[in-house]
């Protein structure tokens, strides 16, 4: 398992290739990448991501460990950025390896659902007209009940 | 103990962390103590349903005990991913 919290951009292709090449016993690799969206229709200048150093790594490691306990998985990778990002920038990625695709897909969805509401990150949108914190959505909290 | 604030909680209180000497037994008691201090705390803690708390970097409830706790953090619901 690898959990990375960093300010710098990451290379999605290089990360996915290295992850996929690490274990030839895995028949399925699923990757998901989150990208900064311009919800304010061309107005978003910066997405500022704040996190809780220490708790962030602890929470992500716990979520990844739980995924490995629930599904038949090989390795798990989580990379999440913080700091100032621009529209189009990649915020985070998860990758799961499994002998079969169902485990890889489900584990990736589980990681994403928990990462949204249980990893201590907060997003602030800075636009031409001001700045505001992105509110948590009820549907993100509700998504946890299916697991 | 160390008390940490994140996102708009940090902005309303005006500092990211501070040292607090308290006899509070629970998180809820600590919140009441802080609210009584100054209007900026009252502004941050006005609606507890909009807040989450972590004790020593684990999520907890507002009725949780502070016994042995070194670090308390208050923040809005998380928005990762």
Automatic annotation (TrEMBL), chain A:
Domain of life: Bacteria
Keyword Isomerase carried by entry: no
Associated pathway: Cofactor biosynthesis; molybdopterin biosynthesis
InterPro entries: MoaE_sf, Mopterin_biosynth_MoaE
Pfam families, alphabetized: MoaE
General function of this protein: Converts molybdopterin precursor Z into molybdopterin. This requires the incorporation of two sulfur atoms into precursor Z to generate a dithiolene group. The sulfur is provided by MoaD.
Coiled coil (residue ranges): none
Enzyme Commission designation: 2.8.1.12
Similarity field: Belongs to the MoaE family.
Catalytic reaction annotation: 2 [molybdopterin-synthase sulfur-carrier protein]-C-terminal-Gly-aminoethanethioate + cyclic pyranopterin phosphate + H2O = molybdopterin + 2 [molybdopterin-synthase sulfur-carrier protein]-C-terminal Gly-Gly + 2 H(+)
Descriptive protein name: Molybdopterin synthase catalytic subunit
Keyword field: Molybdenum cofactor biosynthesis
Subunit structure: Heterotetramer of 2 MoaD subunits and 2 MoaE subunits. Also stable as homodimer. The enzyme changes between these two forms during catalysis.
TrEMBL record, chain B:
Pfam families listed in its UniProt record: ThiS
The keyword Nucleotide-binding is assigned to this record: yes
Keywords: Nucleotide-binding
Keyword presence, Nucleotide-binding: yes
Homology family: Belongs to the MoaD family.
Official protein name in the record: Molybdopterin synthase sulfur carrier subunit
Species this protein is from: Ruegeria alba
